[in-house]
Design brief:
about 280 residues, mainly alpha, 10 helices
């Protein structure tokens, strides 16, 4: 008698699922209909974690972080997965948005030296004994050629990688604000993963409603874009108050300090991304 074995780990199968790795015994290549049914079922039934997570993330600032710290995690998406999904959605929306089609504007970009194009030949830069002038001149010409569209594309594609440096560093600085009583660094990091997941979801909505001319229904929602932007600092303050439990006065003071530090670090990060993008042209 032939013993059926798991195609994943090779263990003998005794039922519908492998007792060793839990993979289903039936792993045939699904049809398109089966794939769509599985995706729909995963979103609406078997994986209710998505809706549990988003409802807390959007409507109860800080509660998702509280649940994670308290150990109640099975009903929610892991912080890193949530952050990655929403950040990918935001950067995808930003990359295809008509708002990002032109970074700079030069009249008649295809004309000669006597046009309004910048004179790139005079750009010179020496850094640590290395002559970067030719690279800057080339980048300048590329920016003038397509009005910075490729520069913006490279910057947007680089920013998610830079966020993996920016986010842990800001979380560390935030930990210093709440030195007593001391919190674990992981708590601050999870807090910022959740806050930035909210930021990305809001910014994706802002991009969609701010330039939605082809969709009249979406265009009518453009008036709500400023309200969505103002929700970001309010959300952060409410989340800080819920998770770290200080007085309202202390929370607001720390929020202002965090905002100042955040903007400085963000400016440095974006400058680094911009310089990297320029050198990649």
């Amino acid at each position: 008698m032939t013993v059926r074995r798991c195609l994943n780990c090779g263990a003998a199968l005794t039922g519908r699922y492998c007792a060793n790795c839990s993979q289903a015994a039936d792993v045939h290549v699904p049809s398109t209909r089966e794939l769509l049914h599985e995706a729909l079922e995963g979103l609406t039934h078997s994986d209710s974690r998505l809706w549990n997570t988003l409802s807390l993330l959007w409507f109860v600032p800080g509660r998702l972080t509280q649940e994670f710290i308290a150990g109640r995690r099975a009903a929610y998406l892991p912080p890193f997965r949530l952050y990655l999904v929403l950040s990918i959605i935001f950067f995808l929306v930003a990359s295809v948005s008509p708002m990002g089609g032109e970074f700079a504007h030069f009249d008649n970009p295809g004309a000669g030296v006597n046009s309004t194009r910048p004179d790139c030949a005079h750009l010179k830069l020496t850094l640590y004994g290395r002559d970067l002038g030719p690279r800057l001149q080339h980048a300048c010409g590329e920016i003038a050629r397509d009005n910075g569209a490729n520069l913006l594309h490279v910057s947007i594609s680089t920013m998610p990688k830079a966020m993996f440096i920016f986010l842990p560093f800001v979380a560390f600085l935030h930990m210093l604000l709440y030195w007593r009583p001391r919190h674990r660094y992981a708590e601050d990091l999870v807090f910022f993963l959740h806050v930035h997941a909210f930021f990305f979801s809001v910014m994706a909505a802002v991009v969609l409603v701010s330039d939605a001319d082809p969709w009249p229904v979406m265009a009518k929602l453009g008036a709500f874009a400023p309200l969505l932007l103002w929700s970001l600092p309010l959300y952060t303050v409410l989340a800080m108050k819920r998770v770290f439990g200080r007085s309202w006065k202390g929370t607001v003071v720390k929020a202002f300090a965090l905002f100042a530090v955040y903007m400085v670090v963000l400016l440095i990060t974006m400058s680094g991304v911009f310089l990297y993008a320029v050198l990649q042209l």
